[in-house]
Design a protein that fits this description.
This protein has four helices and eight strands; from the N terminus they run αββββααββββα. It is α+β, with helices and mostly antiparallel strands and 224 residues long. Strands 1, 2, 3, 4, 5, 6, 7 and 8 form an eight-stranded antiparallel sheet that branches.
Length: 224
């Protein structure tokens, strides 16, 4: 089976459950990752914050994602634990205390938000730095692991929201002709870190960078 066969997304089924995506076999794959919507809702694990509020972190709503020209966004519940499959490049760093929410459209566009509440501000700083390091080396890692994948990446800069957020883009192509674009952001509010991923078929020209920046600011700002 080629990587192209594994990473091609399908359209959403009528019951609004996320369809399989092309990267399910790789768990790291090129750009169109998506976790299946959970059957029951679960809340973020109750973890005491040090200097900020004790409230549960809030998640993005479908309308807060980059607008799709031909489809509304749909969302699964906020679910405790790591997403399955894990998002490419950063998935191995996600701890079991993570919570996540998956989003999808009627077409080959999907997104995900993963939030981790750490025991201290310093642990959150270290975790955010680890995610950024993984994203800094994402393209090289993909090409090293998958010889038939060519990857490029861009850093789109820092956003001034709470303790800051950083935006990245990764474009992957395969020898079979698949082309996928993904945007990632890592943001922190005190001892809470959130990762947002948006992906669809295409390349850097198809990346909704400005809209994704707005989504990232919203995601970090609304945590508490």
């Amino acid at each position: 089976m080629t990587i192209r066969a594994r990473v091609r997304t399908a359209t959403r089924t009528h019951d609004h459950v996320r369809p399989p995506v092309r990267t399910r076999g790789l768990r790291l794959a090129a750009a169109a990752l998506a976790a299946g919507a959970a059957v029951t809702a679960a809340t973020v694990p109750a973890t005491a914050r040090t200097t900020a509020s004790h409230d549960t972190p809030r998640y993005l709503e479908p309308a807060e994602l980059p607008p799709h020209p031909s489809s509304p966004w749909y969302a699964g519940p906020v679910t405790a634990g790591q997403p399955d499959p894990l998002p490419m490049c950063v998935g191995e760093a996600l701890p079991s205390i993570a919570s996540h929410r998956s989003f999808w459209t009627d077409y080959d566009t999907n997104a995900e938000q993963v939030t981790v509440v750490e025991r201290s501000t310093q642990r959150a700083k270290d975790f955010a730095a680890l995610l950024r390091k993984d994203l800094d080396g994402c393209a090289k890692k993909l090409m090293r692991q998958y010889p038939d994948v060519t990857a490029e990446q861009k850093y789109y800069g820092r956003l001034n929201v709470e303790e800051g957020a950083h935006v990245y883009g990764v474009h992957t192509t395969t020898t079979g002709g698949a082309s996928d674009i993904a945007l990632f952001s890592v943001g922190r509010d005190d001892n809470t870190v959130t990762l947002v991923r948006w992906a669809q078929l295409g390349d850097f020209r198809d990346a909704q960078v400005d809209d994704f920046r707005t989504t990232t600011v919203t995601a970090v700002d609304k945590l508490y």
